Structure formats: structure tokens, C-alpha cells
Amino acid sequence: MPQYVVIGSHEPSQCPGANRVMGEVFKKLLEAAPRIAEQHGVRVVMGPVHLDPSHKFLVVLEAPTQDAVQDALLANRIGQVQAVELYRATPVPDLLAKTQGQEPLY
């Protein structure tokens, strides 16, 4: 099943560790995340982990489609409190196999 990487970031003033309101919001969102992910066919492979010392987190997910991940993120509302980046993760050997035989550009 395809894997996806989600990176979230926030301003220091909105850090859940420094901002009481944001701490409560993050707790609520994190508690709801597993149920919402399951509803969308999304499975957590790794994370969430904090990317020290930045104000960022990373999660690796498995899902049937990128739309399923995006729908889960929207339902969870994490994008309302974080800037969210979503990437499809392709193993390098798979990428090389797909591009094998292509003529180099340079």
C-alpha cells in the first residue's frame, strides 16, 4: 500500500508546549486522530514524532490513495492549527525501476 509523509509546522507562539490553548487543541486533535484515520482507511506507520529543535512534526502513513490521507487530515482539522505538507513516499529502488531506460536529460 502506498505510503505518505505528513510534515506539520507551527509558529513558536502557537507551540502546544508554550501556549495553553494550543496545548488543549492539540491534545483533542491527537486523541481523535486514530479513529478518523481508521474511518478513511489510513494507518499510521510511524509517528507522530517531533523534529527537534524545530516547531515541526512528522507522521508516516499508509493509505489506498493520497485523497484518503487528505480527507483524514481535513476531518481531523490539523490544517487549521498547523501548516501541513503532504508527500507520497516512493522507495528509491522503485523510483529507479520506473525511470530505468529513460534517456538522461543532461
Overview of the molecule:
37% of the residues lie in helices and 27% in strands. By secondary structure, it is α+β, with helices and mostly antiparallel strands. Strands 2-3-1-4 form a four-stranded antiparallel β-sheet, with helices on one face. The longest helix is centred in the N-terminal third of the chain and has 20 residues, at 20-39.
Tag the structure with descriptive keywords.
3 helices, 37% helix, four-stranded antiparallel β-sheet, 27% strand, 106 residues, alpha+beta, Alpha-Beta Plaits, 4 strands
Structural class: alpha+beta
Helix content: 25-40%
For the record, the CATH architecture stands as: 2-Layer Sandwich
Name the overall outline: globular
Between the first and last Cα atoms, what is the distance in angstroms? 33 Å
Q: Output the number of helix runs.
A: 3
Beta fraction: 25-35%
Q: How much is the radius of gyration in Å?
A: 16 Å
Pick out the low-confidence regions.
none
In what order do the strands lie side by side in the largest sheet? 2-3-1-4
CATH T-level fold name: Alpha-Beta Plaits
Number of domains: 1
| Mean pLDDT over all positions | 95
Largest sheet: 4 strands, antiparallel
